[in-house]
Amino acid sequence: MRKLFVYYSHTGNGEAVAAFLAENGYDLRRVTPKKELPRPFFFKIMQGGFLAGVGYRAPLVGFDADVANYDAVTIGMPVWNGRPACPVNTVLKALDLTGKQVSFILYAGSGAAPKTVKKLNRLYPGALVTVLKEPKKYPDELQKITP
Ligand SMILES: Cc1cc2nc3c(=O)[nH]c(=O)nc-3n(C[C@H](O)[C@H](O)[C@H](O)COP(=O)(O)O)c2cc1C
User: Among 15, 17, 22, 121, which one has the highest count of C-beta atoms within 10 angstroms of its own C-beta?
Assistant: First the structure.
């Protein structure tokens, strides 16, 4: 079974998940937005929080949306303001996941993201949604993943 992890990471938690999944046979496809969030914390939270709150689809650099060669696609996302990070909104719109085994891995400061879990359960019935608390800082969280 060919497995792909499509993910975004702003501060490295997604990278921790990617390294774990690569060890478990996944190909990796990291998403790069045309513009990253501003560096200063206040502006980062304001901008990222607002844009995620309105479901903004951030333009991506050279994103390959072709997943035809894969049987299973896992999408990894940071949680911003309780919602998927903006670059992931673009991914969700672009990918054709028909007939794939789909799952999601969320990484959040709080380790919880009920709004996003609810939304993903509604849009992708049957898809496994796993929420991790800062796996870069707490590597044991990776054990929650079913690879
Ligand atoms: C703009 C912004 C908004 C965030 N909002 C939330 C939030 O609503 N709930 C939460 O638990 N964590 C929130 N976080 C923390 C991130 O979800 C968390 O640090 C995540 O692990 C980051 O993943 P990354 O390092 O791969 O980018 C936010 C972070 C940013 C930058």
Answer: 17
